[in-house]
Specification:
Blueprint lengths: L24 E8 L9 E8 L4 E5 L6 H8 L7 E6 L2 E2 L7 E4 L13 H6 L14 H13 L15 H15 L3 E5 L7 H16 L3 E6 L5 H4 L2 E6 L2 E7 L5
Parallel strand pairs: 3-8, 3-9, 6-7, 7-8
Antiparallel strand pairs: 1-2, 1-4, 4-5, 9-10
Length: about 250
Amino acid sequence: MNNIETPLPYCLRCSKRPRAGTPAVSVKNLSLSYPGGGRNVLNHLSFTVEIGSRVAILGANGAGKSTLLKTLAGLITPSSGDVSIFGHPVGTCFHEVTYLPQRSEIDWDFPISLQKLVLTGCYIHLGWFLRPKEPHYQKTKEAMKLLGLEHLGGRQIGQLSVGQQQRALLARALVHGAELYLLDEPLNAVDLETQSIIRETFDKLKQAGKTLIVATHDREHIETDYDEAIFIQDGKLVNIVHINHSK
């Protein structure tokens, strides 16, 4: 997918691959408060995420997990601090970053089929005036098959189960073909089949050298599913745990 030529891409500022040793994410003294003042939602966070690693962001509701992911995705501008993605300023490398929001943030009544929703993942590569071509449809088909959705392509997204909707969002992220995946509670309130399929997909992404940062409440699978866990509370960094899988 990423090799398809696009004469008018949406973003022209991120043309170079990161140099050797550059982390996927570098966060230095990051703080953020929303307009109107009040307490900071994020408070002086600093950490790095290495390329190819899977990192869990843990914390209670309101700890700042979603805000942190949106900041890394370039959707929110921090009040202070520095964030870089693959060595580039945050928000200048959208081709290399895909953000999967919580399912509750999506309008599931929107009149679009599952296939068309998944296909929108390729739009970042198309430019302003181009339509999807056969390779994009093939990529969509492959992503739907991987997530067990190939038989539901024509179904309106609101008619899907919760688990199917979550898998549809992940399929869309796969079609994007990014190097960094920012995933907000992808395993929350889904059935066991969906949990298994999503974890298998994470394994495949890991094998492909992709980097995953996942906001989650699930502590049970931290040692098996992730390489590192970052704990935050009230927007502050509490602890970073490096997981040794060689035990």
